[in-house]
Amino acid sequence: MNNNLRPISLASCKVNDKYYDEALHLEVKNMLALNPDRLVAGFRETAGAIAGMDESSRNSFMKGNERYGGVWENGLIGGHTLGHYIKALAQAQINPGLDSKEKKTVKERLDYIIDALDECQNKTTGTAYEGYIFGATLPTQDYLDNPALQFDYVEEGKSDPFKQAWVPWYTMHKILSGLNAAYLYASNETALKVANRLGSWIANRCESWSDEVHETVLSIEYGGMNDCLYELYEMNKKLVDAGNDLGYKDYEIFKNAAHAFDEVKLFKKVSTNEKDLLNDTHANTTIPKFIGALARYEVDDTASEYLDYAKDFFDMVISKHTYITGGNSENEHFGRDNILNAERTNTNNETCNTYNMIKMARRLFAVTGDKKYLDYSAHTLINAIMASQNHATGFTTYFQPMGTGFHKVFNTLDGNFWCCTGTGYENFTKLQDGIYFKGDDKLVVAMYVASIYKGDGYTLTQECDFTKSDKVKIRVDVVNKDSNVDLYLRIPHWLQGNPQVMVGSSIIEPKEENGFYIISKELIPAGGDITITWPMGISCHSLADGKDTYAFCYGPYVLSARLGDKHMKIKPHGIDVVVAAEKSVASDDIVITSESSVDEFMKNISKHLIKQDDQMEFELTGTNKKLIFTTHYNQYKESYGIYWNYSV
Fold first, then answer.
1. Interval 303-320: pLDDT, tens
2. Residue limits of the Non-reducing end beta-L-arabinofuranosidase-like GH127 middle domain (predicted)?
3. Which residues contact 626 (CB under 8 A, 6 or more apart)?
4. C-alpha span between 143 and 74 (Å, rounded)
């Protein structure tokens, strides 16, 4: 497959899967339950300080509202949530899964916030802070006198999160990304104006850095500043090239500023594939840097080395640092290569990391056409992203433990504005993302999820629920016979048996190319039904440092054992995060009684992990422990065990 591919518009695809649809509505309900004036309170206070308002006037401008509590929003990282929130609202506004009334409500909320930020930014006109908006706390008079003091401290190498600076460039990335999305998805022109003025402030700041200051800034977490600035550059370049007055004519400054955040020394180091290179690095500090490297290639395909940097990093993380769910890290950090079993705890798989790895995978597929990126993103969406939500409340996880016997811990509505809370907003308002990709003459079916895609002159309807059947039915309705395309069907990596493809009532043997079945346009000239049978079965997956430590999958689903709700206690961790405090089992050791070796047991696993009739429940037999496994994505009510240590 060539790389002439691009993701479809989020507005063109509706997800019909009931579980996914419920997840979307839970997320939107929770987002709309938040008070927008409290989310923008910090931005208003910052703008008021810049404008020289006294305390009473600032309070009036804030409409008497305070930032939300919980240390994050009312701390030096305050404002990061609003960036995620804006992007999620923009995604929701165009999501076909919402009805017109819901979309109207979402649009009103988004427009209100963007207008509020525009008002804040206008108060900086003619000052030394022109274009600057930010929402973190101003805890002392020094911060009131200099509302950009955090950025000064970072340039000085000061990063105490309570007294000096709590990763302000990371927060800025969220804000600018949200503004970009409000224009790209929701067509909010005011958001673009605010983004351009903020981007100019950022670019001017970057231009002032000496080599020494530049190195210092890059040593402190800055999120994906390169990614969002390359995006802003590309947005404006397209507008200017099209003669649209909305475009910022001096858009090259955004590209230059983006490159200031390209950590080339790190990129080159990763490409050496040196042993244990990522050991003790902060995972969610590092992953966005390489998404930014990919962004450079996306805006300038002559910079092919940046594509190589992203590919090398992705391969390193997947091959040496990733659990069966698709998640990675322990207590936010990568460990030594292939040391995963030894690091199974209550703080694995930070959800932000998963969000970013899926984003990178999908964008790598778009520029390379390599199926492996779709295998990862499809698998990880089901088993890490869908698994990150409490499906009763809509609240989401920070960590997903790989330590057997722990449970998932979720945020609350208005008390835990963790980094992963914000990515949760984004995850569940774009569940149609990554299902389909299109080229000039092809449509790639990348994920098998019940959905409707409306293309140019045709509609594709996909019916699929692997919890009930191994069949996928795709209906193509062609309105304009000149507009239909070849379908490229991703052949799942989890197949167990020979697939069958039918067009209408006829079995066909489609052409296979690089892991895809091709259904040519000639086979469906006026529309028709395609039915694919993808045989499923149980697969066993061990860890490099745990030869006899196994997890199981059934088809696309990671399975985890149900372990009850009697030991679901929490405790504080890090900076105002809570995690699972107790294991529900004394040991994750299992003794095999039915086979002579662990290898034989796993070879014959279909005899020992028995699927219950018409249920996604699997009984483990032939061992000293009787366990019931189920799909991990909807394990949110009790403790669980994915990995178990087997012996004879």
1. 999 999 999 999 999 999
2. 443-536
3. 619, 620
4. 14
